Amino acid sequence: MSQINEELRRYLASLAGHDRFSSMTDDDSLLESGIIDSAAMIDLVAHLETTYSISIDEDDMMPENFDTIDGIVQYVQSKQDAQSNQA
């Protein structure tokens, strides 16, 4: 499990409540489970931008990037890789 994955699981558990989140796997839908809704998505995006020093474009805010923990981790890693390549 990556550091991003571990940190993200802690953050999402704090949003949803540990009992509700504890049975979630990394490929379960956060949207279908109700862990993430439109308000929580705004908080999640702000959290990711601050925590990982990335900028999330509105065009990137689609289910395949934010519906699962795996998807979010892959998205954050791709943004970090893109920033590293620009430096």
Structural write-up:
This protein is mostly helical and 87 residues long. It has a single domain (3-82), classed as Non-ribosomal Peptide Synthetase Peptidyl Carrier Protein, Chain A. 63% of the residues lie in helices and 0% in strands. It is built from five helices and no strands. The chain has helices at 3-16, 18-21, 38-52, 63-66, 69-86. Helix 1 (3-16) crosses helix 5 (69-86). The longest helix is centred in the C-terminal third of the chain and has 18 residues, at 69-86. The chain is globular and about 40 Å long. The mean pLDDT is 91.
What structural keywords apply?
87 residues; mainly alpha; Non-ribosomal Peptide Synthetase Peptidyl Carrier Protein, Chain A; globular
Give the tally of structural domains: 1
Specify the structural class: mainly alpha
Order of helices and strands: HHHHH
Poorly predicted tracts of residues? none
Biggest sheet overview: none
What number is the mean pLDDT?
91
Radius of gyration: 12 Å
- How large is the count of helical segments? 5
Percentage of helical residues? 55-70%
Residue share in β-strands = under 5%
The CATH class is identified as Mainly Alpha
- DSSP, total strands: 0
CATH superfamily: ACP-like
Provide the CATH topology: Non-ribosomal Peptide Synthetase Peptidyl Carrier Protein, Chain A
Distance between the termini: 27 Å
| Structural shape | globular
Name given to the CATH architecture: Orthogonal Bundle
Overview in brief:
The protein is mainly alpha-helical and 87 residues long. It has 5 helices and no strands.
